[in-house]
Specification:
With 412 residues, the chain is α/β, with parallel strands linked by helices. The chain has 11 helices and 18 strands. The chain folds into 2 domains: 243 residues, TIM Barrel; 124 residues, Lyase, Ornithine Decarboxylase, Chain A, domain 1. Strands 1, 11, 12, 13, 14, 15, 16, 17 and 18 form a 9-stranded mixed β-sheet that branches. A hairpin with an 8-residue loop joins strand 14 and strand 15. Helix 3 crosses helix 4, helix 5 crosses helix 6 and helix 8 runs parallel beside helix 9. The chain binds pyridoxal-5'-phosphate.
Length: 412
């Protein structure tokens, strides 16, 4: 049996462009994005796509054309957002460490708002904006001290994390900020983590921001804007179901990002704020796949290894966060299942895609698809071991476009 994942002709693309190869489906990305928009059910809001999740210029252009805003985390991301056509009035700048030159660049382009994370940042922004004869709109990122679960590296709202300011300090900080001549205090922002899979966390975060907004307003700080951040989890396990594939059980099996968002909306709607969110993963993850080919099978007394031509430099999520990507052979047959380690060629034991994974038996030359690799995939790719980065292909109905050619040796 042949697997043509949805409408994407993977086998043909592999033949034409080789492996490892990132392939995106425009339809899946747009469908996921529109589902998020539809979940608001008419509630006025702005969705700032978190560019860090996937910054390919063609994908940015697609999302800009749909009327989304963009959340950027660096001067480079701001450059890409502007070039892709996001209007400056729909761009926000997040991040705990914005450099002076980055603030100058953003002020030159009159972006909508700065999500500030320290008192010193507010002072520096005030001073730079003043020197340029401008005012900067700010939202204060509050640290809610909520445990979002998941890997420690993607938790962002625990007291000991570097992000935001403790909510108890918000009133004092914003009162002071309001007295600064070049700062326009607009509201607050929270982002509790990434790949959050429990509605209860979002409800808790919404209750916490509601409480903070009440406290700030009571203290004389008007709050017009609330950005509720991103972090809406997606289904990674068992994305493709087929009787010739091992069943992947996971608590996220029935998870949809929109249910997570919907759980918080009843609270957020009551706050009388200009509401925004900043999803990244939930928009682009499902639309991307990394294809990689088995170079060797190696059987030892302990293990069977499938050594593939993709590696941690192409997709670092398993190495970085022990993240799970479902692995699906391009040709699905009724091959018996076996337990394997899927590893790359890099000289690190952390260079793996899966440990002890049940998969249909695969041979040298077979191609496998690592599913749901559209977010935090290519953007985190590197040239470690002098391995040129893979090509990126965008499939749109029956057509496909190379949206980033494979890096060449000369570019290393
Ligand atoms: C400030 C901020 N906003 C939005 C996002 C997007 O998160 P996600 O891709 O989980 O939706 C991130 C990512 O960590 C972030 O740091």
């Amino acid at each position: 049996m042949r697997l043509l994942l949805k409408i994407v002709p993977f086998a043909q693309l592999v033949e034409q462009y080789g492996t490892p190869l990132y392939v995106y489906s425009k339809k899946t990305i747009l469908d996921d994005m529109r589902r998020i928009e539809a979940a608001f059910d008419g509630t006025p809001h702005v969705t700032y796509y978190a560019i860090k999740a996937n910054a390919n210029s063609q994908i940015l252009q697609i999302l800009a054309a749909e009327g989304l805003g963009a959340d950027v985390a660096s001067r480079g991301e701001l450059f890409l957002a502007l070039r892709a056509g996001f209007p400056p009035s729909r761009i926000t700048f997040s991040g705990v460490g914005k450099r002076d030159d980055e603030l100058v660049y953003a002020l030159e382009h009159d972006i909508f708002a700065y999500y500030v994370e320290s008192t010193q940042e507010i002072e520096v922004l005030n001073q730079i904006a003043g020197s340029m004869g401008k005012r900067a709109r700010i939202l204060l990122r509050v640290n809610l001290d909520i445990d979002a679960g998941g890997h420690a590296y993607v938790s962002t709202s625990l007291r000991h994390n570097k992000f935001g300011l403790p909510h108890a300090k918000a009133l004092e900080v914003l009162r002071t900020a309001r007295s600064l001549p070049h700062i326009d205090v607009r509201g607050i922002h929270s982002h509790v983590g990434s790949q959050i899979t429990k509605s209860a966390i979002f409800v808790k975060a919404a209750e916490a921001v509601a409480e903070i907004i009440r406290h700030l307003r009571d203290g004389g700080v008007p709050i017009e804007d609330l950005d509720f951040g991103g972090g809406f989890g997606i289904q990674y396990h068992g994305f493709i179901r087929n009787k010739h594939l091992p069943l992947e059980h996971a608590e996220e099996a029935h998870l949809t990002s929109t249910d997570l968002l919907r759980a918080a909306l009843p609270i957020l709607r009551t706050l009388d704020c200009r509401l925004s969110i900043q999803p990244g993963r939930a928009i682009v993850a499902h639309g991307g796949t990394l294809l990689t080919r088995v170079i060797y099978r190696k059987e030892t007394e302990e293990k069977t290894f499938l050594i593939v031509d993709g590696a941690m430099n192409d997709l670092i999520r398993p190495a970085l966060y022990h993240a799970h990507h479902q692995i699906v052979p391009l040709q699905i047959t009724n091959a018996p299942f076996e337990t394997v380690d899927v590893v790359g060629p890099i000289c690190e034991s952390g260079d793996f895609f899966a440990f002890d994974r049940r998969l249909p038996r695969m041979e040298r030359g077979d191609v496998m698809a690592l599913m749901c690799a559209g977010a935090y995939g290519y953007v985190q790719a590197s040239v470690y071991n002098a391995r040129p980065r893979p090509a990126e292909i965008l499939v749109d109905k029956a057509n496909h476009t190379v949206i980033r050619p494979r890096e060449t040796l000369e570019q290393l």
